[in-house]
Amino acid sequence: MNNIFKNLLSIGYSCNLKSNLHTSQLRFAWSKDNLPKRFLEYNKKIYPPQEIGEEPRPAFVCHQKTNIKYSPEKLWYIAVFIRGMTIDEALKQLSFVNKKGAGFVRDTILEAQNLAITEHNVEFKSNLWIAESFSGKGTVIKGVRRHARGRMGEVRYQYSHYFVRLEEGKPPKDYYNLNPLTPQQQLDKWLENMRERKIINSY
């Protein structure tokens, strides 16, 4: 009996009982070719000299944080939340958001603020506002999760990118509606839409 047990152990060790099936997150070597590049190209754009009396062009800086281990759908809510805020107000509001993604967004804004001071000749670091803030889908790694009765299920490890553009100056009063209509204009527009209605199959 002991000899049989020893033989089974030797067979098991020779076959390497460790499973080759990955059930946890895989290690992935990030490639520079897979990272977004076009957004940072705006920092390298050179504008022609402005004419006398022309409205000054505000300075801006674009920055991104890539391959964040966070869902892009969840990160989108945090990105939209701070649009149109001053940089000090955005950092203050993010400190109260009890989400993991808020920390990534806050670090990215601080990095962009530092770039604006050191590389883009912005005089005051508080004289900036969030002109653009959005998230994008990053790399998705597919894994396997074991289920009952020998079945397998797919699990996805999502990564996301975060993009922000800081602009010099004061933010607009209404970020989403730069040309608000007066009550009379809203009424006239509604009446015009009502008069343009048409009954289908009528003369």
Automatic annotation (TrEMBL):
Component of the mitochondrial ribosome large subunit (39S) which comprises a 16S rRNA and about 50 distinct proteins. It comes from the Eukaryota. Its main location: mitochondrion. Coiled coil: none annotated. It holds the Pfam family Ribosomal_L22. GO terms for biological process: translation. Belongs to the universal ribosomal protein uL22 family. It comes from Danaus plexippus plexippus. This is Large ribosomal subunit protein uL22m. InterPro entries: Ribosomal_uL22 (IPR001063), Ribosomal_uL22_bac/org-type (IPR047867), Ribosomal_uL22_sf (IPR036394). Keywords: Mitochondrion, Ribonucleoprotein, Ribosomal protein, Transit peptide. It is found in: Mitochondrion. GO terms for molecular function: structural constituent of ribosome. GO terms for cellular component: mitochondrial large ribosomal subunit.
